[in-house]
Write a structure and sequence with these properties.
This protein is mainly alpha-helical and 1203 residues long. It is 70% helix and 1% strand. It comes from Serinus canaria.
Length: 1203
């Protein structure tokens, strides 16, 4: 009982005592295990287990020196046969670290297995061997090398109908085959004896323990390609055929694994799919057909509906390997399982497992890529929409690795056969593409470092992933473009077949195509160009250029507009023009450039498109572009190179012509990727070389060359020494229009050199105005506030300013060109004269105007003149030239001839020809006023001698009373009102100057005085300017006391009314042709007009009032003084002073004061007000006063001094 005693054992001494509480004597413990009762044995086993757990080192130190004791203890423990004893035994052998003890156990196990009456009693031994294999790394090698006879017992145990024994044996087999030595030594054993038994055991296993251990063994076996080959090629033997439990089929392993997939146990399903993957990974093409014929994929897809991440991962891996076999798709397994896969992805996205996300998307991508075209993958539109939703969600995933896989899937998804089930979900595809492009755009270096600092587990690879993401994005976009092109031939895909009648659907191919063009311009191109500025990527460039090439055919109606958009993109043409040695990229860029150049040609040469020229250009570009593998510097040298004498190098010419066309289209849209000075020199040398060798390039090549010369002229040297050669080239052309480009720089180039301008200036300007879409009307001119804006609207204006002699060529065009061209020329000249007052061209233009007018009047009748829309512009231009003459000047013969021609022109017009008469009457009026008295007298004589002109003026004056104006503001002036103003002003001037120079009159004018007075008195909503003009006429007749040989007054008071008082009659007689009542009404009306405080109207009213009082003073002083001293005038004066400017120093106020002082109207203006005005004048700086104010102040002070 020493083992149970708390103190040291007295029989064995302290040497065998273990430091436990209570102390344990090891010797006593061994004795107790041999002879003690069952209770004591269990107690000792428990204490030994504690000793190995807590005091293993002292225990080993006690046992190791005495081999006999160790062997005895091991034998004792082995003989117990209990699980607890064997655990101690395994632990003890591990701690002792001696192979002899292991050999001892193996010997005992061999004996135990041999003497066992039944296989059932061998179970503990198999279990012990399994535990030893777990605990000791080299156990498997020792067993198969030193005790290989035990393997026969294992095979027997596997055939015994007890699943516990089979489980223990399979477990031990698994450990043996996990070691390299075991695999090598037992290879023949497996092939000859174990394989069939094992497959039968696995197929018939019922308990989970056996199933798990079998799968464990299978997993180890599947690591070897040899064992996989044996398992997959195992055929039934005669014995196995007789066994009804053996699975049917030539390859039982797929069927066995399929059976495990049918269980509800997710762990077994995961292990089964894992084993399938382990088989397929050796050779998918060799082993996949067996699984596919066994319909395993169908059950794998069903397993995707579970929630186990391990199972889903295993199934993804297995299906991914199956996709490498075409039979997987031809058997329609993907069609059956695509819905399960999409639903699985939806569920997986809810999990926080990035690797699972990536693996699922990888499987989805491979299925989308490898699915045969003839087998439609998405037979259900709802599943297709769900797939788009999954792709949308994964594209927006914050983890970059997941988003990269998602974009790959999008690229594979955008195939016609995947989306051909009507109706095509165009709106969803737009959203998906937009999400992909925006996600890619968000990965700019400045943003991605902030946004993905946490979501990317490997920041060092971020730039590489960004580049890959961009490449995948571009592939998606290219596939979408190809999809749109393919759908053009499918009527069902062009519009939504389920759109309600009379309703418009946005889900159409047209809208989708427009979206592709729009998002390419707004997102795709800027994103790619920004990336290529930072990195060189041939793959990105190739896919990008390929997508752009496809876009040319996406929407044929928008091809030209899209080409212009591409042309205006800086560096796009130059990016493509730098062709590469990479053959794929070179071919892609060549195709793109060819399409772009031809489309640009059609767009910019729309008025001159020639099918033959386009065909020649197409052949040249298709042949020459792929061979244009040069740098910019090399290309410029090539352009300047001359062919060998007597030998025309067609290859050299082809390269030169291709490069010129590229430069032409690039420079047309502002992409100057070659230095101007160098290009100018190279193009010049090209032209000189062609001329020297007698080579005549096609017109489209010469057009490009001359355009490039013109564009680069400012940065290049002058061509003075080479002008003769340039001129010979141009002279040899049948028509200059064949090399003309509608560009102001080309016009400037021809007009820059006198030799070229003299020879070709007329033709170039003719072509300019023939091509120009002139929209510069009076209304449009008001929209251009600055000169820069105006120059951009009409780029010819700065060229005209730099060389005024060009104006003569323009005037020649007016005579020699069509009506349309002449009108454009005149509009340009008018704008030029209006905006450039500092250019002195009046004398230069007058003689040409005279010639044009003479020609028009001789060649045209009255009807044709009125229909000629160029004539009004010409007359307006003539008037502008007249306005440009500063100061008073003597009229010369040209001026008098112009006056004569304009008078004759007016005589051929009708009053309603306002566009002709308005500028003509203005010209005549200005000619009378802007000259010396001597010339003025002659001009009046010319005008009054023209009877037809006076007859026209008579009709114009009469139309004043016949025309009823619409309800418009007083400030608005229609063309009819403007003509009436010009007519009244011209008649007033003729009255004045005829009286002054006593000119002979050949035709009189008649005016109804009552109508004139009514126009001022009642106003009748007449425009302000017309009232001012009529008052100007009224002043003229008042100054002449209504007695003029040119004017006949009608409607005057010839007989007094019998009912009127005698006094009134006498006064009317004195005021003849005025009536007293008319005078008072006129005065009141003038006072009312003055209250409006309109500056122009106020000046005219004050002047008319002055003249009226002067007239009345001559006719009847009492009436004049009565009018001048009306109390209302004082109120009127204070009304004028009540505005913002309360000073007396205002022209109209001073003139009214002068009038009141002159006629001694002390009740109107007192001495106090006069003193106040004098004081203001003394304080004011006379030099700073406006001219009109200073003049009025002078007259006022003079009148005060006289009084």
């Amino acid at each position: 009982m020493a083992a149970a005693s708390p103190g040291p054992c007295g029989d064995h001494g302290p040497r065998w005592a273990l430091p436990l509480r209570p102390p344990l004597c090891l010797a006593c413990a061994v004795e107790t295990l041999g002879d003690g009762s069952l209770v004591r044995k269990k107690h000792v086993l428990s204490r030994l287990q504690d000793a190995l757990a807590w005091q293993a080192l002292p225990l080993v130190q006690l046992l190791a020196p005495d081999e006999r004791v160790c062997m005895h203890l091991i034998g004792t423990l082995f003989g117990k046969g209990s699980a607890e004893a064997w655990c101690i035994l395994v632990r003890l052998v591990v701690e002792l670290k001696s192979e002899q003890y292991l050999y001892c156990i193996l010997d005992e196990s061999q004996k135990e297995l041999c003497k066992a009456n039944t296989m059932r009693s061998s179970l503990p031994t198999f279990s012990l061997l399994g535990k030893l294999a777990d605990a000791i790394p080299g156990f498997a090698e020792i067993l198969v090398v030193k005790h290989n006879n035990l393997v026969d017992h294992l095979l027997m145990g596997l055939t015994y109908p007890n699943e516990s024994i089979k489980a223990a044996v399979c477990y031990l087999y698994g450990k043996l085959y996990s070691s390299p030595a075991g695999t090598e030594r037992l290879s023949g054993h497996f092939e000859e004896r174990l394989c069939g038994v094992f497959l039968n055991t696995l197929g018939c296993a019922q308990t989970k323990e056996l199933q798990v251990n079998c799968l464990g063994l299978l997993k180890e076996l599947l690591k070897s390609d040899h064992f996989v080959s044996i398992l997959m090629n195992n055929a039934k033997t005669e014995e196995e055929t007789e066994n009804p439990d053996f699975l049917e089929g030539e390859n039982p392993l797929p069927l066995v694994l399929k059976k495990l997939l049918l269980t509800r146990d997710e762990m077994l399903q995961a292990a089964s799919s894992h084993c399938m993957a382990a088989v397929l990974v050796h050779s998918p093409s060799r082993y996949a057909p067996a699984f596919i014929h066994a319909d395993v994929p169908e059950f794998l897809f069903e397993c995707l509906l579970c929630k186990s991440e391990i199972l889903i991962w295993s199934v993804y891996c297995c299906l991914l390997l199956l996709t490498e076999e075409r039979l997987f798709f031809s058997k329609c397994h993907t069609v059956y399982g695509i819905e399960s896969l999409v639903r699985s992805l939806q569920g997986v996205l809810l999990l926080n497992n990035v690797e699972l996300h990536k693996q699922g998307l990888l499987l989805f991508t491979e299925i989308l890529k490898r699915q045969p075209v003839e087998i439609k993958l998405f037979t259900n539109r709802g599943v297709c929409i769900e797939a788009i939703d999954v792709l949308m969600e994964t594209v927006n995933c914050p983890v970059l690795e997941v988003a990269v896989e998602a974009v790959k899937a999008v690229a594979a998804f955008l195939r016609k056969d995947h989306l051909s089930s009507p109706p095509v979900p165009y709106e969803e595809l737009q959203k998906l593409l937009e999400a992909v492009l925006k996600r890619c755009a968000d990965l700019s270096p400045s943003q991605s470092s902030k946004r993905h600092a946490v979501t990317n587990r490997n920041p060092g690879r971020l730039p590489q992933r960004q580049g890959q993401f961009l490449l995948n994005t571009l592939e998606s976009f290219r596939n979408a473009c190809r999809l749109a092109v393919e759908f053009q031939g499918d009527f069902m895909a062009q519009e939504n077949a389920f759109t309600a009648p009379n309703s418009e659907s946005k889900d159409t191919l047209s809208n989708f195509s427009e979206f592709l063009l729009r998002i390419c311009d707004s997102l795709c191109i800027p994103m790619v160009m920004s990336y290529l500025e930072r990195a060189v990527s041939p793959s990105v460039t190739e896919v990008f250029i390929s997508a752009l090439t496809t876009l040319f055919t996406v929407m044929p109606s928008m091809r030209k507009k899209f080409s212009k958009k591409l042309g205006m993109r800086p560096s796009l043409l130059s990016l493509s023009a730098l062709l590469h040695s990479n053959p794929v990229l070179n071919h892609t860029c060549s195709s793109f450039l060819c399409s772009l150049c031809l489309n640009l040609y059609s767009a910019i040469e729309k008025t001159r498109t020639s099918s033959q020229e386009e065909q020649e250009m197409s052949e040249l570009l298709q042949k020459g572009l792929p061979q244009l593998n040069y740098t910019i510097a090399e290309s410029l040298l090539l352009l300047s190179e001359s062919p060998e004498p007597f030998f025309l190098d067609q290859s050299l010419c082809s390269h030169q012509h291709c490069f010129l066309l590229l430069l032409y289209f690039a420079y047309t849209f502002g992409d100057r990727f070659v230095p101007d000075a160098e290009l100018f020199l190279a193009v010049r040398n090209f032209l000189l070389s062609a001329q020297d060798h007698g080579d005549c390039p096609p017109p489209h090549i010469l057009r490009a060359a001359f355009y490039l010369l013109a564009v680069c002229q400012d940065k290049g040297k002058a061509l003075d020494r080479y002008l003769s050669t340039i001129r010979r080239i141009l002279d040899n052309l049948p028509d200059l229009s064949s090399v003309y480009v509608h560009c102001p720089l080309l016009v400037k180039f021809f007009l820059r050199y006198p030799e070229l301008m003299g020879r070709f200036g007329h033709q170039v300007l003719q072509l300019w105005f023939s091509w120009e879409d002139c929209k510069q009307t009076e209304v449009e001119e008001a929209d251009f506030g600055s000169s820069d804006q105006l120059n951009s609207a009409n780029p010819l204006l700065p060229i005209l300013k730099s060389n005024s002699s060009i104006l003569l060529i323009l005037l020649d065009l007016v005579c020699s060109s069509s009506v349309e061209v002449a009108w454009k020329v005149l509009m340009t000249l008018r704008t030029f004269l209006e905006r450039n007052e500092d250019v002195l061209v009046c004398d230069l233009l007058r003689s040409r105007f005279l010639q044009i007018l003479q020609q028009l009047l001789v060649e045209s009748s009255s009807a044709t003149l009125q229909a000629n829309r160029n004539l009004p512009v010409l007359l307006s231009l003539l008037f502008l030239v007249q306005l440009r003459s500063k100061g008073i000047r003597e009229l010369d013969s040209t001026d008098f001839k112009l006056i004569h021609q304009v008078c004759n022109l007016c005589g051929k017009c009708r009053p309603r020809d306002t566009d002709l008469l308005q500028p003509s009457l203005n010209f005549l009026y200005w000619s009378l006023h802007q000259t010396t008295p001597c010339s003025q007298q002659r001009a009046v004589a010319v005008l009054l001698s023209n009877v037809s002109l006076l007859e026209l003026l008579q009709k114009v004056l009469e139309s004043t009373w016949l025309w009823s104006p619409p309800s418009r503001p007083a400030s608005f002036l229609s063309s009819e009102d403007a003509l009436l103003c010009s007519g009244w002003l011209l008649v007033a001037s003729l009255l004045l100057y005829q009286h002054r120079y006593n000119t002979e009159v050949h035709q009189t004018l008649s005016v109804d005085l009552t109508e004139v007075l009514n126009a001022v008195i009642s106003r009748n909503k007449k425009p302000t300017l017309l009232l001012v003009s009529i008052m100007q006429f009224l002043r003229a007749v008042l100054r002449q006391n209504f007695s003029s040989s040119l004017l006949v007054i009608v409607g005057q008071n010839t007989a007094p009314s019998a009912t009127e008082p005698q006094l009134s009659t006498l006064q009317d007689t004195a005021l003849h042709p005025f009536a007293m009542q008319q005078v008072f009404s006129l005065v009141v009306s003038l006072q009312n007009l003055l209250v409006h405080k309109d500056l122009l109207l106020s000046q005219a009213v004050v002047a008319c009032l002055e003249t009226l009082v002067e007239y009345l003073y001559v006719k009847n002083q009492d009436v004049a003084l009565h009018v001048a001293s009306q109390p209302w005038h004082r109120f009127l004066l204070f009304t004028l002073l009540s505005g913002g400017q309360k000073s007396f120093l205002q022209p109209e106020v001073l003139r009214l004061m002068t009038l009141f002082v002159r006629y001694e109207s002390s009740n109107i203006i007192s001495q106090k007000e006069i003193s106040q005005i004098i004081q203001e004048a003394a304080e004011a700086n006379i030099a700073e006063l406006p001219e009109a104010t200073a003049c009025a102040l002078h007259f006022f002070l003079s009148q005060v001094r006289e009084q």
